[in-house]
C-alpha cells in the first residue's frame, strides 16, 4: 500500500504551472462540452459549476496519474474512471440526459451512459497530449 501511495504522490508532484495549464484547458473544454451538450440536446450538467468538480477536481488528477502511459493504457484506465463518473452522474441526477437525444437514437437509450463513457475516456490521452504541447510551448523557453 505504501508503494501505491508513493507512486500517486510522485505522479501528482508536478510544476504548479502544469496544473494551471490543465485547469485552464480542462475548464474551458468542460464549459464548451456542457454548452454543446445542452445546445444539441444530448446531455448537460444540472448546474454549471459541476464543470469545476468534474473536469478540475476529478479529471485533472486522473490525467496527472495517467501521464506518460501509452495511449491505450490511458484510454483503458480513463474508461474505468469515466464509467464511474457517468454512472454516478445519471444515477444521482447531477447530469441530465435529454430524452430521445442523438445518442439514444444511434445507440439506444440503454447504451447512452456507455456511449458517453467511451467518448469521454478519450479526454485522458488527448488531454494529456494537448496540455503537454501547450505547456512546452508556453514554458520551454523559461526553463532553459
UniProtKB/TrEMBL annotation:
Organism: Croceitalea marina
Alphabetized UniProt keyword annotations: Membrane, Transmembrane, Transmembrane helix
Record-annotated membrane-spanning stretches: 18-36, 48-66, 75-92, 112-131
Name recorded for this polypeptide: DUF2809 domain-containing protein
